[in-house]
Amino acid sequence: MKSLLFSRFLLLLPWVLIVIIVLDIDSSRAPLPARAPRGGGAGSGEPRSAAARPPAQRRPEAALPTIYAITPTYSRPVQKAELTRLANTFRQVARLHWILVEDAAARSELVTRFVAAAGLPCTHLHVPTPRRYKRPGLPRATEQRNAGLAWLRQRHQHLPPPQPGVLFFADDDNTYSLELFQEMRTTRKVSVWPVGLVGGRRYERPVVENGKVVGWYTGWRADRPFAIDMAGFAVSLQVILSHPKAVFKRRGSQPGMQESDFLKQITTVEELEPKANNCTKVLVWHTRTEKVNLANEPKYHLDTVTIEV
Ligand code: UGA
Ligand code: MN
User: Fold this and answer.
1) pTM here?
2) Paired residues of 124 in beta bridges
3) Is 259 a catalytic residue?
4) How far is CA 133 from each of CA 101, 103, 291, rounded to the nearest angstrom?
5) What is the mean pLDDT of residues 127-132?
6) Ligand 1 atom 23: the closest Cα is on which residue?
7) Among the bound ligands, the one closest to the CA of 101
């Protein structure tokens, strides 16, 4: 009896092993959750069509609100380096539309070439800051941010129900984590989060109680109605369109007050939506680039070639 059982067992064993091996091969072949490649070829300016993606990717990405990033930028030795860093970040963010606004009387060749090769959807605008406002102690980039806002409103003027979208002011010298874009993507009206390396402290942040902003942790001008840097908030496209007069003002504005002056036109502190784990995570840094040392740059062109830097 015992030997009969044993021979049955030996007979079945190879079949059991075969079934286990086949199941194992099958599960290791299961498709990995594909990371959708995005952006067309260099300078194509439009994201790759949804049809080119695997079916599983189509639906979630189509439903994603577009993030519009308005970046003022001006000509200086580090400009191309800053824009390169920024584009390298933005290229990794799905459904991002870059609104790059040059502080210049005309589009520069450097930025035009850069945009063409950037490999992400980009609108390239320009408006010069009037000379009288180009002084230390005065707010920067007022006209450029307003040009970006005007473009956004114009673009959506004739489209009845606006597509879901989020607007964010992205200065060209800051450092942005990819997680920041996931956070701002769900903005319903106006969302806020901490900013690192700003206001003379390691960070500034909205103070949150029971899911509501109740104050500001800051070491600089705590009397500001919204004590937050430009990099610390995002606004839904709906809010931008339903407040067509909300702009950055030159008249009476002081540095550090631009954010408050703008935000009080469109929202209240009570209404703000805290992001980044109730404003306890720093996902963006107000880094500033050191002025380059060009002490040894020759007065006249000495090199045998001309190189764009
Ligand atoms: C701080 C804030 O973070 C800015 O959002 C705010 O605009 C600025 O103060 C201000 O004083 O108005 P900060 O690092 O001092 O930032 O300013 P920059 O980074 O030098 O300039 C902000 C943005 O404006 C940058 O994207 C920069 O390229 C652009 N900019 C600056 C111009 O377009 N034109 C200029 O003449 C200077
Ligand atoms: Mn800056």
Assistant:
1) 0.83
2) 100
3) yes
4) 17, 12, 21
5) 97
6) 171
7) 1
